[in-house]
Design goal:
single chain; mainly beta; Hepatocyte Growth Factor; Jelly Rolls; eight-stranded antiparallel sheet; six-stranded antiparallel sheet; 5 helices; glycoprotein; EGF-like repeat and discoidin I-like domain-containing protein 3; EGF-like_Ca-bd_dom; Pan_app
Amino acid sequence: MRFIWLLHMAGRQALFFTTLFFISFVIREIASQQCHGIYSIHQMMLKGHTYKTFKTTPGTPECRDICLADERCQSFNVVMFIAICELNNRTKEARPEDFVKDEYRYYMAKGPKRVPLGSIRGLPAESCKEIKASEGGQAVSGNYWLDSTRSGNSILARCDMRTKDYCVKHQCQNDAKCVNRETNYSCACNSSGWTGKHCENDINECQEGLHGCHVNAICKNAEGSYNCTCKLGFIGDGRNRCGPVGVTDVNTVADDRITATDYHNKNYYPYYGRLNEIRGHGGWCPQNKYDRTGYLQVDMGKVRSICGVATQGQKRAAGWTTSYKLQLSTNGTTWNIYKETNIERVFTGNSDRTSVVKHSLRTDFKARYVRFYPVTYHNCPCLRVEIFELNVPRKLRSMQHQCGPVGVTDNNTIPDARMTASSSYDSYEYHHYGRLHETRGAGGWCPRSTTDRTDYLQVDMGEVRSVCGVATQGMRGSSFWTTSYKLQLSTNGITWNTYNETNIEKVFTGNSDDTCIVKNSLRNDFKARYVRFYPVTYSDWPLFQGNSDYSSIVKHSLRNEFKARYIRFYLVRYYSWP
């Protein structure tokens, strides 16, 4: 064991000596050119921008010479101990976020012979901003080669290198993010509740139909957002649940249901394009990164209501999609590009390999198939995705009831015009006075006759509701009340049904005084918009009509003969003085 270890150590020392000699030789060779701008940085590397890798002869400046001879080479990394050269098509100035520590490498700049980024067709830049970062103060305005997000080919474009930071004096509102442009700035609203050039206008999601409230909830607009309130008879927060379809789960969405136009190789199969996927190299990558017609497609198995999407970069290498579009289809034949306000939406993608970026769709879209089309990317348009669908909240789905008031007591909820009756005794007992706790008029509704059993009080609730109970009260400050009654209900105001229990018309127990409220529950919930109350029996002190002038005599007969010595007259209403 010791002998083998000594040999091993001796080999490592020899390798280390050779490597040191190689580094020393390269540095000595380059030292004469230090004044020309060539330099090296030990234990650092530029990651993710290598376009060519090859093994060199230890102790020679071969890596440097090949880089100097190749116009595309902007810098290079050297892997120490094993003398491997990595040619980069970017500099650390162009991509400072990718300049990282590596104890086994060192980074070398090309120096004055480096061709400026974007100055030749074979070295296109992603943007004018990247060119300015790469060239610094040496950047000049002019035409440069840029990657086209449409054709996939390099195009010549004008870059104004005098661009300044316009965001210094931006006017973005409501926590919007300022994005610096070539000649101005733009505001990226931080939520879907704001719009306008400076994100200054509130979007009324309720009015525009952009909310996520359930059908059994009421939407109310708020600044930059909205609130959902459950309708009577339902509990929960009133919102639809935007939950994952399950693209991450191979049992939910099988491998053969995730396809693509093509793929780079067997390490980047389409079905590796699942969120948090670790198989292969952890993500889908197309064969040709310049082909803007490429897409990743997910078949969800059935038509769903799509409410959101999420993306992630490739797990193993620095490749991710920075922006993308969506196409959706119900049948896999007819496709629709996702739009908002009639404009194709370009979704912001990722800025690293691992972070998940989720977006909500303002307009819920019915689809079975979803395609992700990369628009811009970092190194390579790789993707891992998840799709989100609307799920009805469990509490709302189960239709759990809270038997609460419709709001007949509130004339803002039920206006006077929606309360009618077969007749009214006079203007003091109007039908719209038949509300619980009413104080107007005589404080209640009375029919014109006390003998007509077809008289009724009707309430129009404005929409069909699930009626679970009723409550009654007598006339305020009097001895008049209904002691029993029946109900008729209707959804359209034409066809009426008498409320039954066990196939028998239910006679509800009414009141025994003028103030107490008597509530009756309906054993069978009944769908209705209109409800009619039919008095059956009432308190035995009917209302007598008095005089209308100072001379006329008004006479009333008593239906039932009554033995009495003393008679009291109780004044209910009077004119001027009783």
